[in-house]
Amino acid sequence: MFVTFEGLDGSGKSTQAELLRARLEEEGEDVVLTREPGGTELGERIRDLLLHGGHVAPWAEALLYAASRAQHVDEVIRPALERGASVVCDRYVDSSAAYQGVARGLGLERVLDLNLVAVGGLMPDRTFLLELDPADAVERLGSDHDRLEREGSAFRALAASAYRDLAARFPERYVVLDATRDPDDLAEEIHGALRVRP
Ligand code: TYD
């Protein structure tokens, strides 16, 4: 089972990914929890360039996220799935589709195509979208903003609307949840949704 979490920064994805990992491990499953950008040594270096460096041209940004993802799939995600583990990943292809494809304006289809090449067609079985009003997302951010978090409200609103479009386009794998709900309730619903195998 390959599960991804998506949503704006501040939506609580990382918390839910961790709660799901803990719950599945308690049930005796072999679980790999990982995140993007990052998840490998090369990926963490790319993450640093993307989030804490200077200006990155839009296509350079899309290609760096895709490069990090290609390495991540090759080194971590595919081997884990092949040995029968479940993979829980905080952000994946849909993040690039929403942020680089739509918010940056590079084109959803072009960024999706680029990423499908990078990951050799490997897409998640389930994607949980933690939906949050872009205005609430800003309030939930801490004070130490990375390069992407410093983008304005228009950028965040575009990413949020792109996520809604992606959920409508891929209803067989998307589960859309209200990120403002109680975290334990959300965790319960997420766990329950996985029992209905896609
Ligand atoms: P994330 O790790 O979720 O942020 P944090 O460390 O603050 O929890 O993601 C970092 C930023 O990268 C986030 O603003 C979204 C952006 N991003 C993209 O623009 N495209 C992508 O493909 C990915 C994976 C992330």
Q: So what's the CATH class?
A: Alpha Beta
Bound small molecules, deduplicated: thymidine-5'-diphosphate
Q: Which radius of gyration do the C-alpha atoms yield?
A: 16 Å
Poorly predicted residue ranges: none
Structural class: alpha/beta
The sequence of SSEs as H and E is: EHEHHEHHEHHEH
Shape: globular
TL;DR of this structure?
This protein is of the alpha/beta class and 198 residues long. It contains 8 helices and 5 strands, in the order βαβααβααβααβα.
Q: Can you tell me about this structure?
A:
With 198 residues, the protein is an alpha/beta fold. It has a single domain, classed as 3-Layer(aba) Sandwich (Rossmann fold), CATH 3.40.50.300. The chain contains eight helices and five strands; from the N terminus they run E-H-E-H-H-E-H-H-E-H-H-E-H. Strands 2-3-1-4-5 form a five-stranded parallel β-sheet, sandwiched between helices. Helix 1 crosses helix 8, helix 2 packs antiparallel against helix 3 (58-82) and helix 4 runs antiparallel to helix 5. The radius of gyration is 16 Å and the shape is globular. The termini are close together. The model has no long low-confidence stretch (mean pLDDT 95). Bound molecules: thymidine-5'-diphosphate.
